[in-house]
Design a protein that fits this description.
Number of helices: 12
CATH topology: D-Maltodextrin-Binding Protein, domain 2
Structural class: alpha/beta
Oligomer: single chain
Radius of gyration: 29 Å
Strand content: 15-25%
CATH superfamily: Bacterial extracellular solute-binding protein, family 7
Largest sheet: 10 strands, mixed
CATH architecture: 3-Layer(aba) Sandwich
Number of domains: 1
Shape: globular
Order of helices and strands: HEHEHEHHEEHEHEHEEHHEHH
Number of strands: 10
Length: about 375
């Protein structure tokens, strides 16, 4: 009987210890969870920095990629502990067709899409896509700096987007695996283009078959033979290695490839006034730097491509340029009817400015000597 009592007492003691151990373990889990929650709350309370997520589609070695990084450095140096900039290059978050919705939904705060990508939201921006309008980048700058050009930065306010600055890349050239010396040479070719109605009509006018495809897929579609050619600025061509797959580059310089730095209007307007002022000042400095860098990169990229074995850069003669102009000006005139008169007038003034001369810079690609399309 005594042994039975001892056995039961021992079992009871073991059970109590087991329950106590379970209780302690549960308490430990609760305490741990409470600590994690307190740490998270503390982090939220102490890290009140403004986060700017900046999305773009090109490589970090291109003018836009380098200047996005420089913008981040300058902002975080000028506003330590107050603003953090996160850069997402090469479509890591969104491609250029997705960035406007992403900005509106608050998934990012800044982007720098091609001007062509924004024409579906504001048709007046098509002035930058019109072929054979601006003879060189300097003429584009004069237009952008005009009242009408600056006014275009505000053309997306109606959909909740604010334009902050223009960034350069350069003029477009056309590549293919057969020489394109005159417009007829493009007939029947599948040409990769940006999502622009002007570009679609431009290549359709030439008898080519335009394919609207994202920049991220450029090399894959060339390598796999889905397209026969493409158009782009020199630095983008070099960064994607197009010269490894395409032999002929026609230096037509027929249109301008540039970007607009954009942001969510509500986000921008809601920033503290002193922060917004610093960001505007940094953007102005960075814009001047990116435009000079783009000029240098265009020259360096062209030289590198020209030195690639088997590659040939075709510089059209005066007569050949005249044939391209004749083929493409009808497209420019057709779309010019959709652009406000004051914008067209400013573009004309930028091109025909009295005393205008193209500054000669050693080693730079020569701008087209052909006169601009009249409209």
């Amino acid at each position: 009987m005594r042994n039975l009592f001892v056995s039961r007492n021992a079992n009871h003691t073991t059970d109590r210890r087991r329950r106590l151990g379970t209780l302690v373990a549960r308490c430990g889990i609760v305490v741990f969870c409470m600590c994690v929650a307190l740490i998270a709350v503390s982090a939220e309370e102490t890290d009140d920095r403004i986060i700017i997520r900046f999305s773009h589609v090109v490589g970090e070695g291109t003018p836009k990629g380098m200047e996005a990084t420089l913008f981040k450095q300058r902002v975080e140096e000028a506003l330590p502990g107050r603003v953090k900039v996160e850069i997402y290059p090469q479509s890591q978050k969104f491609n250029d067709d997705e960035v406007v919705p992403a900005l509106l939904f608050g998934d990012i705060e800044m982007a720098a899409p091609s001007l062509s990508k924004l024409t579906s939201y504001a048709s007046s921006l098509r002035v930058f896509d019109l072929p054979m309008i601006f003879p060189d980048v300097d003429a584009v700058h004069r237009f952008q700096e005009s009242a009408a050009g600056q006014g275009l930065l505000g053309n997306l306010r109606s959909i909740g987007i604010t334009g902050l600055a223009y960034w350069d890349n350069g003029v477009r050239v056309i590549s293919a695996n057969r020489p394109l010396r005159v417009p007829e040479d493009a007939k029947g070719l599948q040409i990769r283009i940006e999502n622009s109605q002007v570009f679609f009509e431009q290549y359709s006018q030439l008898g080519a078959i335009p394919q609207r495809l994202p920049f991220a897929s450029l090399i894959d579609v060339i390598r796999n033979g889905y397209v026969d050619g493409q158009e782009n600025a020199w630095s983008n061509i070099r960064s994607r290695g197009v010269q490894r797959f395409q032999k002929y580059f026609t230096e037509l310089n027929h249109s301008f490839l540039g970007y607009m730095v954009i942001t969510n209007a509500e986000f921008w307007d809601g920033l503290p006034a002193d922060v917004r002022s610093v960001l505007q000042e940094i953007l102005a400095r960075t814009t001047a730097d990116v435009n000079e860098l783009a000029r240098e990169q265009a020259s360096a990229s062209r030289r590198e491509i020209m030195e690639t074995e088997g590659v040939e850069i075709l510089t059209p003669s005066g007569a050949e340029l005249a044939s391209w102009r004749e083929a493409l000006c009808s497209v420019a005139k057709r779309f010019a009817t959709e652009i406000p008169n004051e914008v067209l007038a400013a573009a004309r003034a930028a091109v025909r400015e009295e005393g205008f001369e193209v500054a000669a810079r050693a080693g730079e690609p020569k701008p087209s000597p052909a006169p601009s399309c009249s409209f």
